[in-house]
């Protein structure tokens, strides 16, 4: 554990923050730009993993384990979301034979 | 605390009842269990509870009040569900179970004392709702609602989590009390990432409560989901979202009001105008209710913008008034839709002649939405505006009053359709459960409107 902490701390904290922010932004852009439901879903996972990385870095820099515990919460709940989300996508695919979100415009103002 | 345990166990019991084909027992047991949970919650009122589970949750008066209102509204929704789910599918127990699991997430959301519990509660609630929104598997609108709700919900959770991570990075803790202390200890020189985290959390929470400009999923999801689920989402879920919002801001971020107030102010004004003006152009009653729920989110945001001692009370009264009126509106909508098959304003024509009680209940609900005196909605608006005026947001209140007047137009469309337009319709048969729910909502609306002192001094 000591070893891992010192390895993590070999990189300055700001670099972790920048890297996470970049990954998070890629995820946000992916959600906004892509039209395929699965890809959007993957982009959301990318956002969550950016958060995980950031929490792990903060946690080891502050010597406080609760950040790492939070990462486990995020992983578990993201898995639950995946289960429900893929089921919804399969359901949509069965009814429309497509997972392109452009067909989801029947309800519009 | 025992409330949360009772509701979680109740959900599992109901699931097993479905397994053993005890369909008749589902509704009575769910309602009885919720009444027990409500009683347990009220017993903890003024017990000066300390944070429990290593500071994870804190069942204080705030939590008791908002859990009670959520449980009562859920009971009303359950009473409307008699014979409703049977029409959609054969597996009825799952609906009750999912609603109960969502409710247990909501109890966590209103009583958290640690940001990790905010996240866990929010996710328990959201994941159950994703399924509930898409529960009509063959219906395309319901599929679309589920997919949109799911993608937007997961997206907004990402923002919320990034915000939490940055706040953790600055304050080195998820505990609300420690974060509050961090803010108080540093009148100047708070880490800039803390501010970024705060803004990201505002974005995430505004997504969840459906405030403009993050509202675009709301109308589609509310229209596509089954009506009863929409009733649950637009009342209980919205109230829980605001309770979580208010809890976070009043405990942690109150000293930073100068920083976040302008942001929320812009969001509030946008929400009011977008909700009200778009609602004017709707011809579908259910969609109109969706936009009106956006505008009501704007009024409730008011109390957060003018954060102070009176905010909790203002949001509580507004939420109570809004919940009972919404339940009435959705109950009448369900009856009308079962009769005519559509949800447009014309379907309400002549309702006053065929069903005077339904028409009267819906009229009172609409008046309460519009904020006409002698109804609960007026008292709610009064307290919310009063809280804003106490902090000299005079022009903000002026904008809100203009919006309340716009609101009158579209709420009165229904009343006009019911009373002044003729239509040869036969009487709609109302089940006793519906009459009971409508009667209770009507009494609550009028009693709160005439004798508001019941709940105005709770906090």
Automatic annotation (TrEMBL), chain A:
Q: What EC number(s) is this enzyme filed under? A: 7.1.1.-
Q: What is its main location?
A: membrane
Q: Which InterPro entries match?
A: NADH_UbQ_OxRdtase_chain4L/K (IPR001133), NUOK/Mnh_C1-like (IPR039428)
- GO BP of this protein: ATP synthesis coupled electron transport
Bilayer topology: Multi-pass membrane protein
- GO terms for molecular function, please? NADH dehydrogenase (quinone) (non-electrogenic) activity; quinone binding
Q: Report the top EC class in one word.
A: translocase
GO cellular component annotations of the record:
NADH dehydrogenase complex; plasma membrane
Q: Where in the cell is it found?
A: Cell membrane; Membrane
Output the Pfam families linked to this UniProt entry: Oxidored_q2
Ranges annotated as spanning the membrane: 15-33, 38-58, 70-93
Q: Does the keyword Hydrolase apply?
A: no
* Disulfide bond among keywords: no
Keywords in alphabetical order? Cell membrane, Membrane, NAD, Oxidoreductase, Quinone, Translocase, Transmembrane, Transmembrane helix, Transport
Q: Write out the catalysed reaction.
A: a quinone + NADH + 5 H(+)(in) = a quinol + NAD(+) + 4 H(+)(out)
Q: Which NCBIfam families match?
A: PRK05715.1-2, PRK05715.1-3, PRK05715.1-5
As for what it does, the entry says: NDH-1 shuttles electrons from NADH, via FMN and iron-sulfur (Fe-S) centers, to quinones in the respiratory chain. The immediate electron acceptor for the enzyme in this species is believed to be ubiquinone. Couples the redox reaction to proton translocation (for every two electrons transferred, four hydrogen ions are translocated across the cytoplasmic membrane), and thus conserves the redox energy in a proton gradient. NDH-1 shuttles electrons from NADH, via FMN and iron-sulfur (Fe-S) centers, to quinones in the respiratory chain. The immediate electron acceptor for the enzyme in this species is believed to be a menaquinone. Couples the redox reaction to proton translocation (for every two electrons transferred, four hydrogen ions are translocated across the cytoplasmic membrane), and thus conserves the redox energy in a proton gradient.
- Protein family (similarity comment): Belongs to the complex I subunit 4L family.
Per UniProt, subunit arrangement is: NDH-1 is composed of 14 different subunits. Subunits NuoA, H, J, K, L, M, N constitute the membrane sector of the complex.
- Would you tell me the protein name for this molecule? NADH-quinone oxidoreductase subunit K
**Higher taxonomy:** Bacteria, Pseudomonadati, Bacteroidota, Sphingobacteriia, Sphingobacteriales
Provide the gene name from the record: nuoK
């Amino acid at each position: 554990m000591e070893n891992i902490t010192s390895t993590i701390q070999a990189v300055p904290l700001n670099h972790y923050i920048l890297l996470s922010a970049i990954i998070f932004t890629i995820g946000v852009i992916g959600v906004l730009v892509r039209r395929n439901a699965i890809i959007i879903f993957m982009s959301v996972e990318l956002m969550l993993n950016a958060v995980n990385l950031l929490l792990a870095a903060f946690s080891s820099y502050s010597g406080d384990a609760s950040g790492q515990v939070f990462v486990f919460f995020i992983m578990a709940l993201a898995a639950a979301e995946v289960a429900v989300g893929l089921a919804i996508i399969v359901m949509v695919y069965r009814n429309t034979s497509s997972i392109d979100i452009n067909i989801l415009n029947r309800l519009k103002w | 605390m025992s409330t949360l345990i009772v509701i979680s166990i109740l959900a599992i019991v109901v699931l097993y009842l479905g397994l053993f084909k005890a369909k008749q027992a589902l509704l009575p047991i769910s309602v009885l269990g919720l009444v027990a949970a409500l009683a347990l919650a009220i017993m903890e009122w003024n017990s000066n509870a300390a944070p429990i589970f290593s500071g994870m949750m804190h069942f204080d008066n705030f939590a008791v009040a908002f859990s009670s209102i959520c449980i009562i509204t859920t009971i009303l929704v359950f009473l409307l569900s008699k014979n409703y789910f049977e029409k959609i599918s054969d597996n009825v127990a799952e609906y009750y179970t999912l609603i109960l699991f969502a409710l247990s997430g909501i109890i966590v959301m209103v009583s958290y004392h640690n940001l990790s519990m905010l996240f866990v509660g929010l996710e328990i609630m959201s994941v159950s709702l994703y399924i509930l929104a898409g529960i009509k598997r063959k219906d395309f609108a319901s599929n679309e609602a589920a997919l949109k709700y799911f993608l937007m919900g997961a997206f907004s959770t990402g923002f919320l989590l990034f915000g939490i991570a940055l706040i953790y990075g600055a304050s080195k803790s998820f505990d609300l009390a420690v974060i509050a202390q961090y803010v108080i200890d540093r009148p100047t020189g708070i880490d800039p990432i803390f501010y970024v985290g705060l803004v990201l959390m505002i974005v995430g929470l505004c997504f969840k409560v459906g405030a403009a400009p993050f509202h675009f999923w709301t109308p589609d999801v509310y229209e596509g989901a089954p009506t009863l689920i929409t009733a649950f989402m637009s009342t209980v879920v919205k109230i829980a979202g605001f309770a979580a919002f208010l809890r976070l801001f009043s405990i942690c971020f109150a000293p930073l009001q100068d920083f976040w107030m302008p942001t929320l102010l812009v969001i509030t004004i946008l929400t009011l105008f977008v909700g009200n003006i778009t609602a004017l152009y709707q011809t579908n009653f259910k969609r109109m209710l969706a936009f009106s729920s956006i505008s009501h989110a704007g009024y409730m945001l008011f109390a957060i913008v003018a954060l102070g001692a009176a905010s909790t009370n203002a949001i509580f009264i507004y939420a109570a008034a809004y919940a009972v009126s919404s339940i009435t509106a959705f109950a009448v909508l369900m009856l009308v839709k079962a009769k005519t098959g559509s949800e447009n304003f014309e379907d309400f024509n002549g309702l006053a002649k065929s069903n005077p009680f339904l028409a009267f209940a819906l009229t009172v609900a609409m008046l309460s939405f519009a904020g006409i005196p002698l109804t609960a909605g007026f008292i709610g608006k009064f307290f919310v505006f009063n809280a804003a005026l106490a902090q000299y947001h005079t022009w903000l209140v002026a904008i809100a009053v203009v919006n309340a007047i716009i609101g009158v137009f579209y709420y009165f469309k229904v009343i006009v359709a019911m009373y002044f337009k003729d239509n040869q319709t036969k009487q709609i048969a109302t089940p006793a459960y519906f009459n009971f729910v409508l009667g209770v909502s009507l009494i609550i609306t009028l009693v709160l409107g005439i004798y508001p002192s019941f709940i105005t001094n709770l906090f």
